[in-house]
Amino acid sequence: MCWIFADQSRRLFQSFWKCWCLHEGGCVIFTKGTVKKIRKPKPWKHPQPITKTQLMQLRDEFWDTAPHYGGRKEIWDALRAAAEADLTLSQAIVESAGVIVQSADLTICYDERGAKYELPKYVLSEPTNLIQDG
Question: What residue stretches are annotated with the DC-UbP/UBTD2 N-terminal domain (predicted)?
Answer without folding.
Answer: 36-133
